Amino acid sequence: MLEAGASATAVEAYKDGRRIFGYISQKVKYADDFKDNFEKMIEKAGTLYARRGDVEAEINNNKMKRATNECEDWIKRVQEAEGEVLELKSKYEKEIRYAWRFPRFWSRANLSKQMVKKREKLRVLLEEGKLNNGVVIERPREHVRVLDAPRTEDKPSQHWAVEEILGFLRERYVQKIGVWGMVGTGKTTVMRNLNNNEEVLKMFDIVIWVSVSEDGRIKNVQDAITQRLKLKVEDGTNTAETAQLISNELRGIRYLLLLDEVQKPIDLDKIGVSKNDMDSKVVFASRLRDWCVKMGADELVKMKRMSYVDAYKMFEEKVGRIKDPNIIEVGKLVVKECAGLPLLIDRIARTFRNKDNIFLWRDGLKSLRRWSSVKLEGMDEVLEFLQYCYENLDGKDKNDCFLYGALFPEERDIFVNYLIECWKAEGLLHNIDQLRDARDRGHTILDYLKDASLLEEGAMKEHVRMNKVIRNMALKISSRGVDHKFLARTCKGPKEAPKEEEWASSSRISLMDSDLQSLPATPNCIGLSTLLLQRNNNLMLIPDSFFLSMQRLRVLDLHRSAIVSLPTSLSCLTALRALYLNSCTRLIELPSSLGELLHLEVLDIRRTGIISLPIQVRCLMQIKCLRMSSSNFGTGNLISEVISSLSLLEELIIEVDPNTLWSDQVVRTIMEEVSFLTRLTLLTFSFPKVEGLEIFIRSSRVWKDENFTFQFSVGICNSVKHHILDYFEYQSCRFLKYANDEGVRHVISEVLTETNAFELIDHKNISSLSDFDTENMTKLRACSVDGCEDIKYIIDGDVAPHPTFQCLERMVIKNAPSLHCIWNGPVPVGSLGWMTSLILYKCPKLKEIFSKGLIEQLAKLEHLSVEECHEIEEIILEFENHCLDRSTLPRLKKLVLRDLPKLRSITPDDSLIWPSLERVEIASCQSLLKLPFSGENAINLRSIDAEESWWSTLVWQDDAIEQKLRSFCKFTF
């Protein structure tokens, strides 16, 4: 047994020896082939990398497709292998550097073995790289990435903006849409709702939403777009190369790009977003209108503030339903402080959410009202955003002009020209002497402030207003200043005058509408430059020494106060530039001390009891704007000695009561005096007879000057209001009202050659406006015809062979009992090409509106209103318009049809499309039994006002159309 055991041991020893020998031999071979194995591995790796390059090129060349899952996995494993090869290469190079060290024989052999195994792995990867399932497959488009966004349906101001933008997206020729408005109005909410909108999803292949970073760098925007498009951009690729990649990717796609929070204008071409042939669109949201314009917006949408009802509803949603009636009342007051700004409502609601009793709510309201002196969570955050807009105003004049607006009550209209006069008087419009130049500069600044959402359009034309939050910010900023501290107590302020220290520390004081009854005897206010006391109806007396320390006062407004006289200390106001006394009905004279106001430029004494101005007072020598009423001519001395001496006068307004019967001699004298004013740029006057106008035209040297504007009323008219002017910017309009005359006067035709807006009232013995010769009306932008009983048509094409009314934008025809049609005879191409609004009211014999050839000229018509025209049977006559282009009236937005008992149809058939129509109002049109609208041919229709009883009589081609249109209806009973 020992021998057998020994034999087995020997065999095992022999086998072990052979294994050891084989292992050593293999190690020696790996060591000997060290360099060869490395080179073969590198060669195999190179072949694999080349294959990977081919695969990636095929992927990149098929932008409408994506890599297969197998392909993406293979590329990933190749990338992992590449890293491993690089690691082995590093070890190989290290071994080469230390080849003289014998002990490294074993590590070299091991490394060589690893390289052999890696080469085999590379070979397998290369075989798998044939990708039997293909490299790419169709790319399933990720149409949209849904964003978190509050719904807008219950927020009309925001929902309106969404609908407005959708309307523009549907229009083929609109490529870029700018959305602008002040911070906190909900621009981001609108943009996110657009991103998520189902209709948008159907319109575009892909929707790309980008929140632009504060610096607005092109690279950051490009990065967001390339990530959304899943484009691979190599490190180090410059913006121009990236732009080309983006452009190539988007070329064959119908895309919508939404750029939110644009902080400054962006060059879309540099990003790679340029116009393609796929009707792609770009919508960008910014605080400033100007930035949208600079980015080439085809259409602009201004964000509106929320109504109070919608604001309270949003507040209640954020804070939770309020049950306590007392808290509800406080909550309503809290919402009023938020000025309809969704962002502020959201932030303030958060701070009130945890207040669970009436004491905390009342205290919170007090803090909100005193936010300028206490730190208030929510409000401060919003004001930081708003102050950014202020701090980015370009120039000190814009900053000062903006702050000046805080002197006026919040949410109240401020007349633009008055505001600009105050700016000039204060010296805020630097180095401008001429009043007209100041108005031009002022309108430029106003436009800038409105673009920055620091001022808003007023409810009336040519007015602006400042909302509560912006005004509070302006007052807070002014409180920090050294030379422009404001004291503004308007409307809700105490009846008592400010304290002595308040007078002393303020540079501008506004106490308008404060129900003041008295003023301090001698307030110390050496630094005061503006004092606004208007509409204090109980302020009857100004202390005689009141103005003693106001040597720097430049603006004094007392209009519509109850003062009966002005104190002698008025003479101390040696720096005064603007004095407003209009509607001080108890004021019957101006003191002789007015003569000390050597720098006075604006004086308004309309509707006062003043019947004369002091003769030869030196102050009038610097007057640039004088506003008076006919009652101020009581003694007549002003006519003969004062007007012609006002050598610097630029604007003269003389309001004439329609019941005032001036003699021909008085009018002649006034006009002869006015003719000496060589710097006159504006004249407002009412001429009882045409002859008075003729005197001015024949004697004036300036009336045809390009800088001269006028508002003339000729003839006796019961109304002093110029209705057509509500449509116009005040400064750009040359207006003529002509009433209660007959036939054609040559001087009227002559004045019409320079007129922009024309009202013809109760005129007789003319058959059409063509009687005045339409070649004299080439500058007309608006025209109103009212009560002219002999007019049969507005234009007679037989005597007007050339294009007529080429600049006319608005036409209003009322109470024309003989009117048969708008245009008689042929319509020259180019006539009425700019008409946007046509209103017809009480024309009982009118049978046709669009005679043959007229409708084709109205490509810009937006508003058509036809009321109480009882003979109208068709809006668009079938026999005269039977071959109309389908896109006739492409811009019509509003259609109003009222009290048209014989109206049978709007169009001859249903072939017309109404791409811009948004609102329809129909009432008392019982013979109209069919509407030419459907969901397809009126895609922007959103509102139909109609009687429900009439609606039930309509005939429909399809019940689905009726249901769709019914959803837009607001029924009356």
Secondary structure layout plus pairing:
Layout: H1 2-32, H2 34-60, E1 65-67, H3 69-97, H4 105-128, E2 136-138, H5 156-170, E3 176-180, H6 187-196, H7 198-203, E4 206-211, H8 218-229, H9 239-250, E5 255-262, H10 268-271, E6 281-286, H11 289-294, E7 299-302, H12 308-319, H13 325-337, H14 342-352, H15 358-369, H16 379-391, H17 396-404, E8 414-415, H18 416-426, H19 435-451, E9 456-457, E10 463-465, H20 468-480, E11 486-488, H21 500-505, E12 508-510, E13 530-532, E14 555-557, E15 578-580, E16 602-604, E17 625-629, H22 637-641, E18 651-655, H23 664-674, E19 682-687, H24 690-699, E20 709-714, E21 735-739, H25 746-752, E22 757-761, E23 782-786, E24 793-796, E25 810-814, E26 821-824, E27 837-841, E28 863-867, E29 894-898, E30 919-923, E31 943-947, H26 948-951, H27 959-966, E32 969-972
Helix pairs in contact: 1-2, 1-4, 2-3, 2-4, 3-4, 5-6, 8-9, 12-13, 12-14, 13-15, 18-19, 23-24
Protein name: NB-ARC domain-containing protein
GO biological process, one term: defense response
GO molecular function: ATP binding
Distance linking N and C termini: 124 Å
- What's the architecture of the domain at 156-302, going by CATH? 3-Layer(aba) Sandwich
How much β-strand is present in the residues?
5-15%
Please tally the helical runs, counting DSSP H or I stretches of 4 or more residues: 27
Largest sheet: 20 strands, parallel
Q: In terms of per-residue confidence, which ranges show pLDDT below 50 for 5 or more consecutive residues?
A: none
CATH topology of the domain at 156-302: Rossmann fold
Helix fraction, binned, reads 25-40%
CATH-defined superfamily of the domain at 156-302: P-loop containing nucleotide triphosphate hydrolases
Can you give the mean pLDDT? 85
Query: Radius of gyration in whole Å, from Cα?
Result: 40 Å
Class based on secondary structure composition and strand pairing? alpha/beta
Shape: globular
CATH first level of the domain at 156-302: which class?
Alpha Beta
Domain Disease resistance protein At4g27190-like leucine-rich repeats: 813-931
Domain Disease resistance R13L4/SHOC-2-like LRR: 547-690
Coiled coil: 64-128
GO molecular function: ATP binding
